[in-house]
Structure formats: C-alpha cells, structure tokens
Amino acid sequence: MSQPTVLERLEILADAAKYDASCASSGTSKRNSKGGKGIGSTEGMGICHAYAPDGRCISLLKILLTNHCVFDCHYCVNRKSSNVRRARFTPQEVVDLTLAFYRRNYIEGLFLSSGIVKSGDHTMEQLIEVARILREEHDFRGYIHLKTIPEADAELVARAGLYADRVSINVELPTVAGLTRLAPDKSAPRIEGAMTTIRSAIVESKDARKRFRNAPKFAPAGQSTQMIVGADAASDADIVGRAGALYDRFGLRRVYYSAFSPIPDASAVLPLQRPPLVREHRLYQSDWLIRFYGFTPAEVGQAADPGGMLPLDIDPKLAWALKFRDRFPVDVNRAPREALLRVPGLGVKAVNAIIAARRQRTLRLDDVARLTVSVVKLRPFIVTADWRPVLLTDRADLRPVVAPKAAQQLELFAA
Q1: Where does the record place the Elp3/MiaA/NifB-like radical SAM core domain (predicted)?
Q2: Each residue of 313-357: pLDDT tens digit?
Q3: pLDDT over 60 at 371, yes or no
Q4: DSSP alpha helices (H): ranges in 329-407?
Q5: Main-chain dihedrals φ then ψ at residue 35, nearest 5 degrees
Q6: CA distance 312 to 260
C-alpha cells in the first residue's frame, strides 16, 4: 500500500487538529525579520488570513504531528480504538510546511499538537525538535504554540517553553470524576503537576530577566488550557469555578472552552447530542467577566439556575443584574468604576469613557447612549442627570423588556 503524500497527510492532520480551540497568538513578545535577519514575525501586519470551511479566520498553521495515539480517551476522534485514517509527519516535514506556508504569506506561525506515540517522552521530544529546527537552524521569529504532553518528563516540558511563545496543556474535562470516567489513561495530578512546572519556569524566567538582560525568555505568551463542555455532567457553575481556580493557581493567559461534538464510532458513555453552541458562548462571556469586569467565579455562579446552568437567552452579566436588583440603579456621574462595570450593556471601553467624560461635565442619558449599542438595556440600571428609572428596575416583567429578541432564520426567497 502506497504511503499518503504530504498534502494528503496535511489534510488528515489539519482536520484532526480542528477540535483544539486554544490556538490564539496573542500576548507574545514582538519579533520581526527587519534588517535581513531571520525569517518570520509575530506581528500581524502583512499577514493574509486563511478561512477554514466552517468560516473560522485562521492565521496559524494548525496541525498534529500525528493522529496515532496509544491512549483511548472516549471523547477523542483520534483515540486508539477509533476507526480513522492515520498519518504522521516527521519533524523536518512540519518545519518545511511551516516555512513554505509562511513564505507564501498564508500564516503568521505554527500551532502544533500530537497524539501520543510510543510514549509521552518520545512525542514531546519530536514536538520540541520541530521548534528547535525552526528557531536555531532557520532563525524563525514567527509565533509558535506547542501543546505539551503532561505524561512527559518535567525537563522536556520545561524545554518546550524555551522555543515556544506559548505552551499549553489541556485539563480536558472540568471535574476529576469526568476525567477518570472518560479519559482513564490520563491523570489529573499529573496534568496539574506539568502545569505547575510551566508556571514555575515562567515566573523564574521573568525574575531572571529583571536581573540579567540576556536571560532566555520562557514562553513569553504564557500558558493556556482547554476544557470540553457537555461531554460529562459538569454544570456551568462547575466549569466557571474550575476555570477560576486554574487562573489563580497557574497564572493562565486563557482558558478555552470547546463544546463537545459527537464523533464517528462514538463510545456509549458519551451523550448522543452536542450541547447548544450558545452554552459555549455564555461560558466565554463568563470568563470575560472574571478577567476584565471584576466578577468572582462564585458571583458568576450566582447568575445560574438552581442546577448550576447559565441562562441561554440572556448573557450572564444581565442574569446577575436581574438577580441582584438591590445593587441598581447606578449613578453614572458618581458611581465607582467597579459598580459601573456591573451595569448590563456597559463594556470596559464605555466605562472608561464615562469616567473620563464626567470629569468635564455632568452626563445625561443621551451622552451614555452614544457609548453603547442600545440604551434600552441600560435604562433600568442607571441614573443620569435627566433620567431615573423610578419603578422600572423593580418591574416583575423586567427580563423580557431588557432581554434581546430571539433571532429568526430569514427565508432566502421570502417576498
């Protein structure tokens, strides 16, 4: 049987990588090849983005080194018992593909993960070799994100950060019980141990660079992780709480959420249907509230129903405000920044603009309306020089008044 060509293997391994959501290239240090030195850049100027068949805008070559795997995780399309086409690249082939794509201005960097072949150490060595060749032999200065293998030796995991801008380890599932049930080959303590190794190396690198200018950088874009949503019985409150703990313990740049998608030849322990995609969206909104709006995971959990699930028809910030109406209305001319950030419909930029503007004049409702998409959601929750909601905030039917209208699918040939 003939071996698949490079393009055929690229098709297989790029498709196999599509389930990993944590491939953003934000947060790294700036490097470029001006002056004729090196190749590549981490900056976005001049990058031509490619579009995946599902409409995603991508600018990273996102592939697996191989989709062969010795593990048998129930939710993974590449698990050992899965009946899928298998393929494998050598480290040099990945390097050649990355450089060829970059020279054609298709990508700004590389996102590389892999199934586990032979052992965690062997796989990690192969991933590191790709990054080493790019950096040392080709002076590649573009972005590299390596998915590290928690089962690998801690020294190998640490080496990955010397070549990669960002490293990440997936915690896979929100609860230890879910991981034990659906990924019996993986260990939560081992995953967290590897994340601790990376966290320590990042902190040590930053400290060293404060004292020694030429100290090597370690994963300047930090580390991230990903959780699968809907494959187990974890509630939204469980997921948000887990994400908050990960941010606190490991100093993560991002926690990504990936809605479970049914896979071919699925295990009987998996749900038959995927969760609604809007659930993944609500979790990202909750994550934003924790990272930028001053909410704690417990406060986000208060917006959920008794079963711990966030409402799908309204965003978690509005859900929280409707449950805690005693915190409103907020006077935009006097309230502190922390209180303004709790107002539904006001983003960080709008709050900053309000604080800057009110130093010069007293704000009216029209002034605030210019800073937001719709003032309808705002009116029950704010006080301005010419507006006070009176009994509007306490209306029993306030939710349908401020909730967005449900989107309707338009008919293509409607009259």
Answers
A1: 59-286
A2: 999 999 999 999 999 999 999 999 999 999 999 999 999 999 999
A3: yes
A4: 337-340, 348-357, 365-369, 398-402
A5: 85, 10
A6: 17
Q: Are 313 and 406 in contact (CB under 8 A)?
A: yes
Q: What is the pLDDT of residues 171-224, one digit of tens each?
A: 999 999 999 999 999 999 999 999 999 999 999 999 998 899 888 899 998 999
Report residue 306 as tokens.
């008794």
Helix (H) or strand (E) holding 323: helix 316-323
pLDDT in tens, 118-153: 999 999 999 999 999 999 999 998 889 999 999 999
| Helix, strand, or coil (residue 15) | helix
Q: Please check whether residue 220 is in contact with residue 170, taking contact to mean a CB–CB distance below 8 angstroms.
A: no
Q: Which amino acid is at 285?
A: Q
Distant-in-sequence, close-in-space partners of 99: CB < 8 Å, separation ≥ 6: 39, 134, 138, 140
Query: pLDDT tens, 245-284?
Result: 999 999 999 999 998 887 766 677 888 788 898 999 999 9
Residues written for the chain: 415
User: Which segments of 88-187 does DSSP mark as H helices, in order?
Assistant: 91-103, 120-132, 154-163, 176-182
Q: Which structure tokens are listed for 212?
A: 């020694």
pLDDT at 29: 54
User: What angle separates helix 236-250 from helix 277-292, to the nearest 10 degrees?
Assistant: 40
- The 10 Å CB-count burial string (b at 16+, else e) for 295-312 is bebebbbebbeeeeebbe
Cβ-based neighbour number of residue 205 at 10 Å: 18
pLDDT value of residue 88: 95
Q: Which residue has the tokens 């494959």?
A: 231
Q: Residue 239 carries which side chain, given as an amino acid letter? A: I
Higher pLDDT, 152 or 47: 152
> Are 53 and 14 a contacting pair, CB within 8 Å?
no
Set out the domains of the chain in order of their start, with CATH numbers. 6-275 (3.20.20.70), 324-402 (no CATH)
Look up the pTM and report it. Answer: 0.86
Peptide bond into 311 cis (omega under 30): no
The region, left, alpha or beta by phi > 0 then psi within -120 to 50, assigned to residue 251 is: left
In terms of C-beta density within 10 A (0-12 exposed, 13-18 middle, 19 or more buried), how is residue 54 classed?
Answer: exposed
